[in-house]
């Protein structure tokens, strides 16, 4: 098959996407297909030119949109591909858009009885009117320490930990510079556990063994530095979980995938407090996909190689048409 791999994009995750795309291109070629890389630059322009990109996409059997964050993981590229009638890997327009919007994700999951991190969304005047913002936090029973993050985006860009009013105001300003909706959430003390969800060509949905994150202790939390630039961050897979908790997280991850209407793949991230119930932190509808990323690591622990995961994604997308 001819497989287009779209990478890059105008988001803070541009470089991560390029690394994911390069890994996928190698796997596609290893599988015996013709890989055709298509790069979108950091300004959002197709490097080959949009008209040529359209011709290339329409000439391919399937497209892998290996973009992270806005402009690619948020449904825009998926809508473009649907207009071109090009089969593609992963979630459709609605699931992609909702999945990248942390507020909408949590609203939908909460409505379906799936526990999520407690928090509120600040928007409009609440971002600059300190008293209005504080009243909203107080009404929700939120107190320091707090995590502040842009409503859209990934890779922990624009995420800060606030321990008092000055750090809270600075964190809100940083997050608002990225997105007009800002989430303020309670700090969850406990374990960070990820689940990799994969859809198979016959429609079956399953998860790989869970992964536990041990972030670089020199960093304030599992931030972008701890994710991409630190040798001290450790991923433990399979995560040491008792059977009941492992099954509960597995079932919840699949529920999240189905409730949001996802397709193909997703990574569902949980907090597991030492003294409470597990909560969903977020979903990534196209998670980091370098050979060192969490998603392929989890499937490797299940005995499924990087190339085999890519093969499953391609065959599932083609089967779905």
Architecture overview:
This protein is of the alpha+beta class and 321 residues long. Helices cover 37% and strands 22% of the residues. The strands form three sheets. Strands 8, 9, 10, 11, 12 and 13 form a six-stranded antiparallel β-sheet that branches. Strands 4-7-5-6 form a four-stranded antiparallel β-sheet, with helices on one face. Strands 2-1-3 form a three-stranded parallel β-sheet, with helices on both faces. α1 links the parallel β1 and β2 (34-40).
Low-confidence stretches: none
Give the helix tally. 11
Share of helix, binned: 25-40%
Order of helix and strand elements from N to C terminus: EHEHEHHHEHEEHEEEEHEHEEHH
Strand proportion, as a percent range, falls in: 15-25%
Amino- and carboxy-terminal Cα gap: 14 Å
Which class of secondary structure composition applies to the elements?
Answer: alpha+beta
**What would the average pLDDT be, to the nearest integer?**
93
How would a crystallographer describe the biggest sheet? 6 strands, antiparallel
Rounded radius of gyration (Å): 19 Å
List keywords for this structure.
alpha+beta; 6-stranded antiparallel beta sheet; 321 residues; globular; 4-stranded antiparallel beta sheet
Short description:
This protein has 321 residues and is of the alpha+beta class.
Helix and strand topology:
Blueprint: E1 2-8, H1 14-30, E2 34-40, H2 50-59, E3 62-65, H3 76-83, H4 93-100, H5 102-111, E4 119-123, H6 130-139, E5 146-150, E6 160-162, H7 165-176, E7 181-186, E8 190-199, E9 205-207, E10 211-214, H8 224-228, E11 234-236, H9 243-259, E12 265-273, E13 279-284, H10 294-301, H11 306-320
């Amino acid at each position: 098959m001819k497989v287009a791999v779209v990478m890059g994009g105008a988001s803070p995750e541009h470089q991560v996407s390029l690394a994911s795309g390069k890994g996928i291109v190698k796997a596609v070629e290893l599988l015996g297909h013709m890989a055709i890389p298509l790069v979108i630059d950091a300004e959002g322009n197709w490097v080959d030119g949009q008209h040529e990109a359209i011709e290339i996409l329409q000439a391919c059997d399937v497209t892998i949109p290996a973009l992270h964050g806005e402009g690619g993981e948020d449904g825009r590229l998926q809508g473009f591909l649907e207009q071109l009638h090009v089969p593609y890997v992963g979630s459709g327009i609605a699931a992609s858009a909702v999945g990248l919007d942390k507020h909408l994700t949590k609203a939908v999951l909460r409505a379906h009885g799936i526990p999520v991190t407690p928090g509120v969304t600040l928007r409009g005047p609440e971002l600059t009117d300190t008293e209005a913002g504080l009243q909203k936090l107080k009404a929700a029973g939120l107190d320091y320490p707090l995590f502040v993050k842009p409503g859209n985006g990934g890779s922990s860009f624009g995420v800060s930990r606030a321990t008092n009013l000055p750090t809270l105001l600075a964190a809100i300003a940083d997050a608002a510079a990225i997105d007009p909706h800002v989430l303020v959430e309670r700090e969850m003390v406990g374990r960070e556990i990820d689940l990799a969800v994969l859809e198979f060509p016959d429609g079956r949905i399953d998860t790989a063994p869970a992964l536990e994150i041990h972030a670089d202790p020199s960093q304030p939390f599992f931030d972008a530095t701890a994710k991409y630039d630190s040798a001290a961050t450790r991923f433990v897979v399979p995560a040491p979980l008792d059977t009941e908790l492992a099954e509960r997280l597995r079932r919840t991850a699949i529920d999240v995938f189905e409730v949001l209407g996802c397709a193909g793949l997703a990574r569902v991230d949980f907090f597991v407090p030492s003294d409470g119930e597990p909560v969903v932190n977020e979903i990534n509808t196209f998670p980091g996909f370098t050979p060192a990323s969490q998603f392929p690591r989890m499937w490797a622990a299940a005995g499924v190689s990087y190339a085999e995961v890519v093969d499953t994604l391609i065959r599932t997308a083609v089967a779905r048409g």
